[in-house]
Every structure is written in C-alpha cells, then in structure tokens.
Write a structure and sequence with these properties.
23% strand, 105 residues, five-stranded parallel β-sheet, alpha/beta, Rossmann fold, 4 helices
Length: 105
C-alpha cells in the first residue's frame, strides 16, 4: 500500500503486548494506526475525532468495559469492527455487531 492510499485503523485492546504487536504488524503492512486504547470512552472519542476505516476490538477490556457494547457504538458511526479475542464463543455470539472475529493466540 503506498503513502497516497492508506487505511486508518483503531486498535482497542487491554493487553499492551498484543496491542503493540498488532500495531507494528499493521504499520509494517502499510496501514496507519490512529490510536491504541483500552477503554470504551477513549475509543469512541478517537473514532469521532478521526473516523477510522476499521476498528480491531477486544471483547473484554480494562475496567470492565465491554467490547461488544463498544462495537455497537462504532457500528452506529458506520465504523466496521473486527473482534480480536480469546473468547471465541462470545465473539461468535456477537457476530451481528462485527464483520469478523479473529482468535488471539
């Protein structure tokens, strides 16, 4: 992907190592990661400020925040969501909110 055409992504993940690995891999592939956050409120604010092309969202977030609820808010802003979670059954049950889900290692 060249510099004149890049997709902006939002990563919402409470595990710092996972978030940084995802960020590094995506940036190496030519994407722009606009923000790393681990809370619903911060993610919604970031999404309003600079509408990302896609949000990668963990289902269980810091402080009891719920990634499924966040995904609903992002979907209302027409931002597609991909769940990144170790909870495959919960991600599967919430598939109407996200366009896809990816299991964490």
């Amino acid at each position: 992907m060249d510099a004149t055409h890049c997709e902006t992504l939002l990563i919402v993940e409470d595990d710092v190592f996972t978030a940084m690995c995802a960020k590094d891999a995506l940036e190496d592939a030519g994407y722009v990661v606009m923000d790393l956050t681990d809370r619903n409120r911060e993610a919604l604010t970031a999404a309003r400020d600079c509408k990302p092309a896609l949000a990668l969202v963990n289902i269980d977030l810091r402080g009891g925040d719920d990634g499924v609820a966040l995904a609903r808010g992002l979907k209302a802003m027409d931002i597609p969501v991909v769940f990144i979670s170790g909870q495959t059954s919960r991600a599967q049950s919430a598939r109407t909110v996200a366009i896809a889900s990816m299991p964490k290692p």
